Fold this sequence. Notes:
Elements (H helix, E strand, L loop, with lengths): L1 E3 L4 H12 L5 E4 L13 E4 L5 H10 L5 E3 L6 H6 L1 H21 L4 E7 L22 H20 L2 E7 L1 E3 L17 H9 L5 E4 L11 E6 H16 L5 E5 L4 E3 H12 L5 E4 L8 E2 L4 H7 L8 H14 L7
Parallel strand pairs: 1-2, 1-4, 2-3, 4-5, 5-6, 6-10, 7-9, 8-12, 9-13
Antiparallel strand pairs: 9-11
Amino acid sequence: MLVTGGAGYIGSHAAKALSKAGHRVVVYDSLVAGHREAVKYGELVQGDILDPGALRSTMQTHGVDAVMHFAAFLDVGESVRDPAKYYRNNVGGALMVLDAMAAQNVRTLVFSSTCATYGEPAETPITEAHPQRPINSYGESKLVVERAFPHYERAYGIRAIALRYFNAAGADPDGELGEDHSPEIHIIPRALDAATGGPGLQVFGDDYPTPDGTCLRDYIHVSDLADAHVRALDMLSQGGASGAYNLGTGQPQSVRDVISAVERVTGRTVPWTLAPRRAGDPAILYASADKARAALGWTPKLPSLDDIVRTAWAWRQTHPRGYGG
């Protein structure tokens, strides 16, 4: 089982879930954004997804029979400023992975996609039937890859499940793995930083058409995401069809809700300041995950925002400087 980007945040949690489910895991990661210390389950092969020879060699050497593809850049704001970076890596890299799979006769893929493929929601909660009209190149780069899957299946027999998740958050409840980005872009670790003496939190806009004026998002625990990936792999391994599934709790939470949850869990104040809206940020994004529940038998085990924050806080207390600390 090859996990590209398996030294990153979601990929490392998926590698653990796969290993616990009995799969032999090989992590393929450039370590540009991932952490060697996060590879606690499976063997690490350091390599770039833009290197087709290394991909094919890794698949051949390790007898890879399926792939989970996480290796992608994910900063929405950066994708607006530098779309070339996102097309080159997220699209070009994914196509390299698909090409290597075709060459090595690997026919099973679980793809890390995103709710950003939907763009501004026409209705909420968002179902898989919602039109996909991304408003940033991050979402567009993921959608381009999704649109390639039917063609690769017809030509090469590669079946793929795309998991469109909403806002990944939290940390491994066992305390082994957590979130460590540089720079940190996600709100919960940034709020924890602010609560523990780090830079104050910036709230990007308070004039959205939402109850408190701040963006509404669907925060889904990273271990629940990992569980869904294993279930998707099992479904494909048992002959299931290609498809796409939303992963979320269906419970929208505002930026102010997150700040309140961090203050409840930590018992500390989160200093914050108001900043302008960020380009490419929809006002409201939350999921209907009924399709994943029905087809994959998947239900979030940690849907509470307080529980999500609690695991992130526990990780932060034991790893105040992330993996490097």
